Protein backbone atom coordinates (compact mmCIF):
# COMPACT_ATOMS: atom_id res chain seq x y z
CA UNK A 1 0.00 0.00 0.00
CA UNK A 2 1.30 3.44 -0.94
CA UNK A 3 1.51 5.75 2.04
CA UNK A 4 1.10 9.50 2.39
CA UNK A 5 3.89 12.09 2.40
CA UNK A 6 5.01 12.30 6.03
CA UNK A 7 8.43 13.92 6.32
CA UNK A 8 11.56 15.40 4.73
CA UNK A 9 12.76 11.99 3.55
CA UNK A 10 9.54 11.61 1.57
CA UNK A 11 9.99 15.07 0.10
CA UNK A 12 13.58 14.23 -0.82
CA UNK A 13 12.35 11.17 -2.71
CA UNK A 14 9.80 13.30 -4.58
CA UNK A 15 12.23 16.03 -5.62
CA UNK A 16 14.88 13.47 -6.59
CA UNK A 17 12.45 11.60 -8.82
CA UNK A 18 11.14 14.90 -10.16
CA UNK A 19 14.61 16.10 -11.14
CA UNK A 20 15.40 12.80 -12.85
CA UNK A 21 12.43 13.58 -15.09
CA UNK A 22 13.30 17.27 -15.56
CA UNK A 23 16.91 16.63 -16.53
CA UNK A 24 15.89 14.45 -19.47
CA UNK A 25 12.70 16.21 -20.52
CA UNK A 26 13.00 17.63 -24.03
CA UNK A 27 11.00 20.78 -23.22
CA UNK A 28 12.56 21.57 -19.84
CA UNK A 29 16.10 20.20 -19.59
CA UNK A 30 17.70 23.38 -20.96
CA UNK A 31 16.49 25.26 -17.87
CA UNK A 32 18.29 22.79 -15.60
CA UNK A 33 21.70 22.49 -17.27
CA UNK A 34 23.60 23.75 -14.23
CA UNK A 35 22.24 20.85 -12.18
CA UNK A 36 23.97 18.20 -14.30
CA UNK A 37 26.86 18.38 -11.79
CA UNK A 38 26.11 15.97 -8.94
CA UNK A 39 27.34 18.30 -6.16
CA UNK A 40 25.33 21.25 -7.47
CA UNK A 41 22.27 19.03 -7.91
CA UNK A 42 22.51 17.63 -4.38
CA UNK A 43 22.71 21.12 -2.87
CA UNK A 44 19.73 22.22 -4.95
CA UNK A 45 17.69 19.15 -3.98
CA UNK A 46 18.27 19.95 -0.31
CA UNK A 47 17.10 23.52 -0.91
CA UNK A 48 13.99 22.16 -2.62
CA UNK A 49 13.30 19.87 0.32
CA UNK A 50 13.50 22.92 2.60
CA UNK A 51 11.09 24.77 0.30
CA UNK A 52 8.49 21.98 0.08
CA UNK A 53 8.91 21.11 3.77
CA UNK A 54 7.94 24.69 4.58
CA UNK A 55 5.13 24.71 2.00
CA UNK A 56 3.59 21.45 3.20
CA UNK A 57 4.43 21.28 6.90
CA UNK A 58 5.00 24.99 7.74
CA UNK A 59 8.40 24.25 9.27
CA UNK A 60 10.07 27.58 8.55
CA UNK A 61 12.94 25.76 6.85
CA UNK A 62 12.91 28.02 3.78
CA UNK A 63 13.23 31.77 4.06
CA UNK A 64 14.55 32.83 0.66
CA UNK A 65 12.78 34.58 -2.20
CA UNK A 66 11.94 31.65 -4.47
CA UNK A 67 10.75 33.95 -7.22
CA UNK A 68 14.01 35.85 -7.76
CA UNK A 69 16.13 33.11 -9.36
CA UNK A 70 13.24 32.19 -11.62
CA UNK A 71 12.81 35.79 -12.77
CA UNK A 72 16.52 35.92 -13.62
CA UNK A 73 16.32 32.61 -15.46
CA UNK A 74 13.27 33.82 -17.40
CA UNK A 75 15.28 36.83 -18.60
CA UNK A 76 17.93 34.50 -20.04
CA UNK A 77 15.70 31.67 -21.21
CA UNK A 78 12.08 32.81 -21.49
CA UNK A 79 9.40 30.56 -20.06
CA UNK A 80 6.33 29.56 -22.03
CA UNK A 81 2.99 28.30 -20.77
CA UNK A 82 3.86 24.75 -21.91
CA UNK A 83 6.91 24.80 -19.61
CA UNK A 84 4.73 25.34 -16.55
CA UNK A 85 2.25 22.70 -17.69
CA UNK A 86 5.02 20.15 -18.22
CA UNK A 87 6.71 21.08 -14.92
CA UNK A 88 3.44 20.51 -13.05
CA UNK A 89 2.71 17.24 -14.86
CA UNK A 90 6.15 15.86 -13.98
CA UNK A 91 5.90 17.05 -10.38
CA UNK A 92 2.49 15.42 -9.96
CA UNK A 93 3.78 12.18 -11.50
CA UNK A 94 6.66 12.19 -9.02
CA UNK A 95 4.19 12.52 -6.15
CA UNK A 96 1.66 10.02 -7.52
CA UNK A 97 4.29 7.39 -8.33
CA UNK A 98 5.33 7.27 -4.68
CA UNK A 99 2.57 8.59 -2.42
CA UNK A 100 -1.16 8.78 -1.93
CA UNK A 101 -3.18 10.61 0.69
CA UNK A 102 -4.12 13.99 2.07
CA UNK A 103 -0.60 15.42 2.22
CA UNK A 104 0.15 14.18 -1.31
CA UNK A 105 -2.99 15.97 -2.54
CA UNK A 106 -2.11 19.13 -0.63
CA UNK A 107 1.42 19.05 -2.05
CA UNK A 108 0.11 18.78 -5.62
CA UNK A 109 -2.37 21.62 -5.03
CA UNK A 110 0.40 23.81 -3.65
CA UNK A 111 2.60 22.93 -6.62
CA UNK A 112 -0.23 24.13 -8.86
CA UNK A 113 -0.30 27.39 -6.89
CA UNK A 114 3.48 27.81 -7.18
CA UNK A 115 3.40 27.15 -10.93
CA UNK A 116 0.48 29.55 -11.40
CA UNK A 117 2.13 32.36 -9.45
CA UNK A 118 5.43 31.91 -11.28
CA UNK A 119 3.67 31.84 -14.64
CA UNK A 120 1.74 35.02 -13.82
CA UNK A 121 4.86 36.82 -12.59
CA UNK A 122 6.95 35.83 -15.60
CA UNK A 123 5.05 35.31 -18.83
CA UNK A 124 1.93 37.25 -17.86
CA UNK A 125 3.69 40.31 -16.45
Please name the defining characteristics of this protein.
mainly alpha, single chain, 66% helix, 5 helices, 125 residues
Describe the protein's architecture and organization.
The protein has 125 residues and is mainly alpha-helical. The protein has one domain (8-122): Globin-like, CATH 1.10.490. The protein contains five helices and no strands. Helix 1 crosses helix 2, helix 1 packs across helix 4 and helix 4 (81-96) packs antiparallel against helix 5 (102-122). The longest helix has 21 residues, at 102-122. It is globular. The mean pLDDT is 96.
List the helices and strands and how they pair.
Blueprint: H1 8-22, H2 38-57, H3 67-76, H4 81-96, H5 102-122
Q: What is the CATH C level class, in words?
A: Mainly Alpha
Overall tally of domains: 1
Number of helices: 5
Termini distance?
Answer: 44 Å
Number of strands: 0
Do you know the CATH architecture?
A: Orthogonal Bundle
- Largest sheet report: none
The average pLDDT is 96
- Give the SSE order as H and E letters: HHHHH
Produce a short descriptive summary.
Helices cover 66% and strands 0% of the residues. With 125 residues, it is an all-alpha fold.
